[in-house]
Design goal:
6 helices, single chain
Length: 231
């Protein structure tokens, strides 16, 4: 009797275990189904805020990234501000070029004054001597006139030695190097921006070059004036 009841009880126990496992599995599946849309939404949200980087010509605005992930355009206002910043950056580049030219002129002007100051004083002295000689020409002897002419010729031979120019000082050269390095760094940064091939950014670079050249390159024509080199 025990042997005849054992198979039936075993089958009953198996059925109960199967039913219980099925009941335990249903909440898990239901929770998985409930969590799936949330995970999908999270993935879509992450995908929508990803940086758009293209090595081909593009007109991307929102979700564009430049230089690093921290420069991430998340709104049209941010993109407009970035365009204005690029224009201003190129204008600053032109300003630094102008400052470099002005500083070189300042150094050259100082050297020119130091070189020509002795020569100018000597020429003034010779002019005064000639006027004095002309007023007393009838009272001077021929030997004195020859001696005077000999002195004038000696001074004329000494003039080329007075025209030597020295280079800038260490401090002046350091300032020139800093200006050059700043100009080089900004130019390289602008080149990296252009390599994103964003049409709006490239147009802003051209616009900044136009404005900067118009504002800061007028000194180039002043160099052709009569007193442009020596002030």
């Amino acid at each position: 009797m025990d042997m005849s009841m054992s198979p039936s009880s075993t089958m009953g126990n198996m059925a109960m275990d199967t039913t219980a496992s099925g009941m335990n599995t249903m909440p898990t599946a239901t929770s998985a189904m409930g969590a799936s849309p949330g995970m999908g939404g999270m993935g879509m949200g992450m995908g929508s805020s990803a940086c758009k980087i293209s090595m081909l010509w593009n007109w991307n605005t929102v979700d564009s990234c430049f230089i690093s992930s921290s420069w991430h355009i998340t709104s049209p206002g941010k993109f407009a501000g970035s365009c204005i910043g690029v224009v201003a950056l190129v204008c600053v580049l032109e300003l630094i070029r102008r400052l470099s030219r002005d500083y070189d002129r300042y150094i050259l002007k100082g050297q020119t004054r130091s070189v020509f100051a002795p020569l100018t004083s000597r020429l003034n002295k010779r002019s005064e001597d000639k006027e004095h000689t002309h007023s007393r020409a009838t009272e001077r002897e021929a030997g004195g006139s020859l001696s005077s002419n000999g002195n004038d010729n000696t001074e004329g031979h000494e003039q080329p030695r007075q025209l030597r120019r020295r280079g800038p000082t260490i401090l002046q050269q350091m300032v020139r190097a800093v200006l050059h390095t700043t100009h080089f760094g900004l130019a390289y940064f602008i080149m990296l921006l252009a390599m994103y091939y964003n049409g709006y950014i490239i147009i802003c670079i051209f616009l900044g070059a136009l404005i900067g050249s118009f504002a800061f390159s007028s000194d180039m024509t002043a160099e052709y004036e009569g007193s442009g080199c020596c002030g």
